[in-house]
Amino acid sequence: MVYSFNDIRCKEIVNIKNGCRLGYPDDIEFDSCTAKICRLTIFGRPKCFGLFGREEDISVKWCDIEVIGEDTILVSCECPSNLTKGRHGLFGKLFK
Fold first, then answer.
1. Confidence (pTM)
2. What is the C-alpha separation between 52 and 73, in angstroms, rounded?
3. Which residues pair with 56 in a beta bridge?
4. pLDDT tens digit string along 12-25?
């Protein structure tokens, strides 16, 4: 099946190792010599509405992608340590 980047941008990336929702792809990195996609990049979430910058970007290697489904992209990779604790945002713990 052939996907455009607009199709992939609408799919949420989920890590199958721990069930962590990583986010939506924001950018694609590709090798200009071979024209192959190397990785998907998910921009870090803004801290306090962007006033304190952003979290680190997450890069997922293309070889770590297990399945591209209708709604999600399932990957098998190691998450950064700040993601395994949960990405609840500023008010996430208050409104559980």
1. 0.75
2. 30
3. none
4. 999 999 999 999 99
pLDDT at 62: 93
DSSP annotation of 70: S
Phi first, then psi, for residue 7 (nearest 5°) are -70, -45
Q: Which residues of 67-96 are buried (b: 16+ CB within 10 A; e: fewer)?
A: eeeeeebbbebeeeeebeeeeeeeeeeeee
Residue-range domains of the chain with CATH? 5-78 (2.30.30.240)
Chain mean position to CA 49: 19
Tell me the backbone φ, ψ of residue 93, rounded to 5 degrees: -75, -20
| SS (HEC) of 22-36 | EECCCEEEEECCCCE
